[in-house]
Amino acid sequence: MNANNRFGLPALASTFFNLGSLLFGLAAGYWIGPRIGIQPIEGMAYGIVFGGALQLLCQIPALLRCGFRYRPALDFSHPGLRRIFVLMGPALVGSAAVQVNTLVNTSFAAGIVDSAGRVMNGPVSWLLYSFRFMQLPLGLFGVAIASATLPAISRSAAAGNTEDFRRTLSRSLGMVFLLTVPSAVGLAVLGEPMVGAIYEGGKFTAADVHQTALALACYAVGLTGYAAIKTLAPAFYALGDARTPMIVSLVSIGINYLAASTMVGVLGQSGLALTTSFVSIFSFIALLWAMRVRIGGINGGALLTSALKVILASALMGAVCWGSSHFWREWLGIGRWARLTDLAVSVSLGLAVFYGAARTLGVTELEAAASSLIRLMGITRAKMN
Length: 385
Prior knowledge:
The protein is mainly α. It is 84% helix and 0% strand.
């Protein structure tokens, strides 16, 4: 569907997975399960299976409307299939690097001890919960932009149109900067009220909120690099090059291990989160440099100018959000409703300040983002009518 410029339903498919997993899981665990001897936790596991099936089935009608039909076929001599096998191996190795780094960091986090030399129970959970917040802007912006970019640059690569490939990729990276830099600043500045509003309560104490927010701020440092990789790595695949992302990923494993083994002793779980950010920034810079060499430039001057403007506007936004959050915290305290009020006002104010600052600085991607939003709203309104 992406190849046919249809992005909405595939992007929403994960929502069907989440809702299906939750609803089927609760039904299997608490309604059907007790009647047939299934424990609640087993029912939730069955819910994951049903959610995955729903994620697939919800897309089939749209796929049929695109003209695709399925019939079983197995032809290993087909050139397209052979090409997939050639690219798939390095791509799998490159993708596995992320899981390896996560496993290494989790292992280090599980061994963190307190001042008395006892192993702490919190660090693994603090890292897990903080990274959940990272996944929201990463999925909304990084993955979405990458999904929309890949079909366009693939067509350019297939046609041998390097200039169009360069221009499209550069614009996509500029959009990544526009959307993820302020998101990273927001997560770093407003992390504590965000975490507290959602997780605080029961065994999750104010101390847990603070530690999770610290880890989130460290993760946020690498959000833009992480999101940019989502666009850059597929760009190499579009050029038929799966080897370069694989090499960068393998090098990142070594860097992550060395940095994590050092940082965990200095900053604890926050050091591990910061290590993840450093690795993502390294991978982004390495891939960007390799792509620049591969296609003879990537409009780097314009991209750097735009990124600096976005950073400046985001810094101003962050200062305003910090001041607003501090005011509401002093006035209302740190209860759940107080934190929600803080977030509602501070986020709205921050968005307004960022938009005004970016517009004043002349960030070109801002107009493109606004135009895309207006078109999307127009399409949605037309469908509703």
